[in-house]
Task: inverse folding
């Protein structure tokens, strides 16, 4: 198998790891490049989107995670690419496609530090031999040593340890070989310390991913853990990947999702909550849940909060602070910024004055008072 064939297969295998930005809309969905490799549109700081190559170094794995199609003992074609091959192929591809970066992960080959050495060596070749100064996201393998993690931080723009589930008990249900506290939480805490403000690697971002629906976890548990990661570890971003029926062991087939409920809608609701936590000023303790700990699927979580807090409304468009306006269903950060800017020139009498239209206007109008 030549290098191109390997990367095509390994980039396809990387689709299950979402701990970097990728979307589900027509314009921001992954697509194949000119030679079959999967490319991922991601937002960039200057606005718009750039394209990232996302791949595994190998799909061999010694772990037995029950939800993973590449777990030890599964019947899949195993492929490994050498760091030299990956670095050279990426640079060739970057010249043709003008990529903004590389997201590199791997199955656990032999042991965590052996795999980390290969991931780090790929990044080192890119940084030192090819003088590549673009974005590199490295996966930190659960159980990696402190030294291997710090080496990754010295080379990467961002790193991620996938937490997968909210808590040790759920982890034990899904793997007999992972130690939740030592293999996952310890590395995340170390990265948090090393990337804190003023620390040596303060410019490196840390993200993580939850697999949704493979264990018996509730949405409430996922949200509480997510809030804790933001507040206590300074996590930059959490991602959520709905467990896909048939990828893992047969008995895991969306066991935590009642018939008729869409796992992708559940995933979508968790992303909406994540936005409330990161951009709307909500605390995880404020998020409303159904009696069974699930998020309502028939309404978004911000609407659900508003319905449970009628005493908060109506919000006055001409006087309410930013945090109050952000609680209004139908208003997002952009609309609120426009409202605040318009107020400097006079009172806001109608949401249409700041570009709120259609369904958003109908929804927001029920919760605001204009003058």
Result:
């Amino acid at each position: 198998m030549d290098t191109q064939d390997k990367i095509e297969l390994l980039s396809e295998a990387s689709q299950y790891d979402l701990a970097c930005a990728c979307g589900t809309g027509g314009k921001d969905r992954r697509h194949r490049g000119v030679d079959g490799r999967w490319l991922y549109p991601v937002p960039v700081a200057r606005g718009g989107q750039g394209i990232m190559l996302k791949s595994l170094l190998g799909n061999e794995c010694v772990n037995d995670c029950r939800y993973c199609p590449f777990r030890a003992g599964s019947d899949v074609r195993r492929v490994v690419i050498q760091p030299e091959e990956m670095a050279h192929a990426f640079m060739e591809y970057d010249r043709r496609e003008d990529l903004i970066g590389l997201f590199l992960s791997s199955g656990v080959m032999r042991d965590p530090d052996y795999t980390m050495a290969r991931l780090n060596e790929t990044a080192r070749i890119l940084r030192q031999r090819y003088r590549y100064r673009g974005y590199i996201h490295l996966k930190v393998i659960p159980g990696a040593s402190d030294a291997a993690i710090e080496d990754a931080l010295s080379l990467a723009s961002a790193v991620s340890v996938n937490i997968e589930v909210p808590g040790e008990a759920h982890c034990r249900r899904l793997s007999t070989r992972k130690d939740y506290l030592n293999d996952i939480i310890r590395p995340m805490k170390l990265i948090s310390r090393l990337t804190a403000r003023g620390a040596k690697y303060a410019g490196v971002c840390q993200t993580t991913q939850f697999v949704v629906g493979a264990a018996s976890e509730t949405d409430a548990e996922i949200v509480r853990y997510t809030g804790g990661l933001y507040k206590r570890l300074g996590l930059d971003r959490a991602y959520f990947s709905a467990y896909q029926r048939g990828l893992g062991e047969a008995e895991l087939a969306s066991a935590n999702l009642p018939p008729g409920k869409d796992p992708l809608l559940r995933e979508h609701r968790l992303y909406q909550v994540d936005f409330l936590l990161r951009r709307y000023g909500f605390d995880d303790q404020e998020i409303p849940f159904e009696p069974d700990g699930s998020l309502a699927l028939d309404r978004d979580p911000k609407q659900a909060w508003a319905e449970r807090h009628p005493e908060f409304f109506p919000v006055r468009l001409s006087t309410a602070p930013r945090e109050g306006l952000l609680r209004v269903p139908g208003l997002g950060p952009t609309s609120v910024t426009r409202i605040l800017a318009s107020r400097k020139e006079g009172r806001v009498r109608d949401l249409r004055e700041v570009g709120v239209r259609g369904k958003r206007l109908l929804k927001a109008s029920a919760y605001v008072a204009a003058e």
